[in-house]
Amino acid sequence: MEAEVKALVSKNPSYQIWVTGHSLGGAMASLASTWLGYHNIAPRKNIILYTFGMPRVGNYKYALQHDELVKDSWRVVNDDDLVPHFPSVASLSVINGPYHHGVEAFYSEEAISVYSTHRECCGKPFNEDATCSFSEVTRSIDKHKNYFSIPVGTFWNTNCVPPSRMRREESMGDY
């Protein structure tokens, strides 16, 4: 796949590469975007990462390296989603333990659309912001299964058509 991506970037040097994933797919997207930046497959300014409900990937050192290589990195967390808090952190001062990277887009209430109110959390301490999802005491696997009112595990069945668009098209009928 490396050769194909290099060929596409060579043909379209200004194009952005968006890497995204949910849950374990988010962890894999994190590693893939870091790899793209580390190996200079594309200009770093063109690598964009969005993850949804991603568990912690790597330690503090990885988080620093990732943020250097992937300048546009977002971790979307839906309310009290359980998964972004694993593996658990014994202490935020332990740099060899699991640690988040990137900016957290925290939806403190269930996000029903991309326009729902959220906070961008850059971390105090770095990337593990104690005022965002890290502050949530109760955790729910239900919030992990739906992002923006879309059931993540079955979204592919709709050919990735958001529910609001499906409803709008259904109401238009056949003309």
Explain this structure.
With 175 residues, this protein is α/β, with parallel strands linked by helices. Helix content is 28%, strand content 18%. The protein has 5 helices and 7 strands, in the order H-E-H-E-H-E-E-E-H-E-E-H. The termini are far apart. Residues 166-175 have low confidence and may be disordered.
Describe the SSE topology:
Layout: H1 2-11, E1 17-22, H2 24-38, E2 47-52, H3 60-69, E3 72-78, E4 103-107, E5 119-121, H4 142-145, E6 146-147, E7 150-151, H5 163-172
Parallel strand pairs: 1-2, 2-3, 3-4
Antiparallel strand pairs: 4-5, 6-7
Short description:
The chain is of the alpha/beta class and 175 residues long. It has helices at residues 2-11, 24-38, 60-69, 142-145, 163-172; strands at residues 17-22, 47-52, 72-78, 103-107, 119-121, 146-147, 150-151.
Q: What is the distance, rounded to the nearest whole angstrom, between the alpha carbons of the first and last residues?
A: 43 Å
Structural category = alpha/beta
> What share of the residues does DSSP label as strand, in percent?
15-25%
Kindly state the number of beta strands.
7
The global form is globular
Q: State the helical fraction.
A: 25-40%
Q: What is the rounded Rg?
A: 17 Å
In quaternary terms, these chains amount to single chain
Largest sheet, described in full? 5 strands, mixed
> How many helices in DSSP terms?
5
Q: Biggest sheet, strands in spatial order?
A: 1-2-3-4-5
Q: Whole-number average pLDDT? A: 83
Low-confidence stretches: 166-175
N-to-C order of helices and strands:
HEHEHEEEHEEH
